[in-house]
Write a structure and sequence with these properties.
Layout lengths: L3 E5 L3 H13 L4 E4 L2 H10 L2 E7 L7 H11 L4 E6 L4 H11 L3 E4 L4 H73 L2 H22 L8 H13 L5 E6 L9 H16 L5 E10 L5 E10 L4 H14 L2 E7 L2 E8 L6
Parallel strand pairs: 1-2, 1-3, 3-4, 4-5, 6-7
Antiparallel strand pairs: 7-8, 8-10, 9-10
Helix pairs in contact: 5-6, 5-9, 6-8, 7-8, 8-9
Length: 334
């Protein structure tokens, strides 16, 4: 049997008589004098069966059934009536889904046996309702996952063109270097493969908490600086917030990383600042102070990639200072 038995009965003497008889059978019968009181009890504890006197003082039976069906779908309902009326019985069973009907004069002991059977039915009903609820929840979860994946694919379709163009840059350079068949070219090709692999990981798997973009730039720089002496990081100021499109932020990160990467082997100090141009347009300025070693193949793929990843890219050189003035926009606007 599942749950408590709750009896809606406004007559206190009848309610007490029922409680005593039920107690003799080892069953604790809860009593509510009205439908509203019954709802309070049903919200506070599990009720498997609701025993209702047809003469509910504060609510029509049809309304009671409506509320129970909506708010307490696992509860089975039995009704006590004063007079046998075939039309009434048909209405109660067909329209209100009443499980059992007891007609006065009531033999409470016999009623208990019927009620115990109803409680078994309540357990089956409860399991069925919970199963259906689980199916609904799993379906909702599936639909939410599907919508999320669909949204992700829609965003990815915009970024695909950018990814493909960057892929072409690295692939063409790798193939060209491998065709030269000398140790230096093979070494450079291996480096390009590593860079390309990093770009793909940024685009497809790595998370990018935008509110920590400054920390990410610093972390990227620290990893690069371990590969060569003489590189220092100056000020890093980022305006990025959670409203910035993720794929756009990945392009920004890779562009900044690529600029810093080309400085390996140089004694320079790098600074990164940013600011919003419009609500969607973001400007990043990377300033390099010091003598930057220029390696032709690095400069070539750097320039090609920056022009793909940005809306506009302006490189200014003034003595020992090199400034990369980059403007980024959401990927779908490229």
């Amino acid at each position: 049997m599942a749950g408590n038995i709750l009896y809606i009965q406004s007559n206190e003497k009848i309610a007490q008589s029922f409680q005593e008889t039920f107690r003799e059978r080892g069953i604790e019968l809860l009593v509510a004098p009205s439908a509203q009181d019954a709802f309070v009890i049903m919200r506070e504890q599990e009720v498997g069966l609701l025993l209702v006197d047809i003469n509910i003082p504060d609510m029509r039976l049809s309304k009671l059934v409506e509320i129970c069906s909506r708010d307490f779908p696992t509860v089975i309902m039995n009704v006590c009536v004063d007079v046998l009326n075939s039309l009434l019985v048909t209405k109660l069973v067909n329209r209100h889904a009443i499980h059992k009907i007891f007609v006065a004069p009531w033999d409470v002991k016999e009623m208990i046996e019927e009620i115990e059977e109803s409680l078994d039915a309540a357990e089956i009903s409860r399991e069925q309702v919970l199963f259906e609820k689980k199916i609904v929840e799993e379906n909702e979860q599936f639909q939410n996952t599907l919508h999320s994946l669909t949204d992700a694919l829609k965003k990815q379709q915009y970024s695909y063109n950018t990814i493909r163009r960057v892929t072409d840059v690295f692939f063409e350079n790798i193939v060209h270097l491998q065709e030269l068949q000398d140790d230096e070219s093979r070494s450079q090709a291996a480096v390009l493969k590593q860079i390309f692999d990093m770009y793909l990981r940024m685009q497809t798997t790595e998370s990018l908490p935008l509110e920590r973009f400054e920390e990410i730039v610093r972390s990227d720089f620290d990893k690069l600086a371990k590969q060569a002496e003489g590189m220092e990081l100056g000020e890093v100021h980022s305006c990025l917030t959670g409203d910035v499109q993720r794929t756009m932020a990945v392009n920004i990160r890779f562009a900044v990383w690529l600029i810093l990467y080309t400085c390996l082997g140089s004694k320079i100090t790098a600074s990164v600042t940013s600011g919003y141009i419009t609500v969607k347009e973001v400007k990043f300025i990377v300033t390099l102070q010091g003598e930057k070693k220029k390696i032709p193949f690095r400069e070539r793929y750097l320039s090609e990639c920056l022009h793909i990843l940005t809306k506009s890219c302006e490189i200014k050189e003034n003595g020992s200072e090199t400034v990369y003035d980059l403007t980024f926009i959401p990927v779908e606007q490229h």
